[in-house]
Amino acid sequence: MKLYTSKEDYLEAIFLLTKNNQEVRSIDLARHMGFSKPSISNAVAGLKEDGFLTVNEEGHLKLTVEGEKKGREVYEKHIYFKEMLVGAGVDPELAEKEACGIEHVVSYDTFQKIKKKLD
């Protein structure tokens, strides 16, 4: 299933928050992403429907195996392209923004091939 950019961003954010905290709530995601609670609620509902996320009785978000895989892949691409751009002399703030765009355009398979070729 091809994910939309916004869903990939949510999965990446939840993946990051989960790495830093054991339990992530919708409010944590809203603060991290700078979005409203209703926007987060809609996104969480969509991710649950797609099988990428579960929410327990206390409201803690938990990525499914597939959700964690997708979140990790997006994050890995983001970090790699950001570091590559900064290494090429791009301003770190611009590199952050552009890496966020690249991570959504390049498939994980293509990313692996680029990484293998360049590393």
From TrEMBL:
Keywords: DNA-binding, Transcription, Transcription regulation. It holds the Pfam family Fe_dep_repr_C. Residues 3-64 form the HTH dtxR-type domain. The keyword DNA-binding applies. Gene3D superfamilies: Iron dependent repressor, metal binding and dimerisation domain, Winged helix-like DNA-binding domain superfamily/Winged helix DNA-binding domain. The keyword Ion transport does not apply. It comes from the Bacteria. Belongs to the DtxR/MntR family. This is Metal-dependent transcriptional regulator. It comes from Aequitasia blattaphilus.
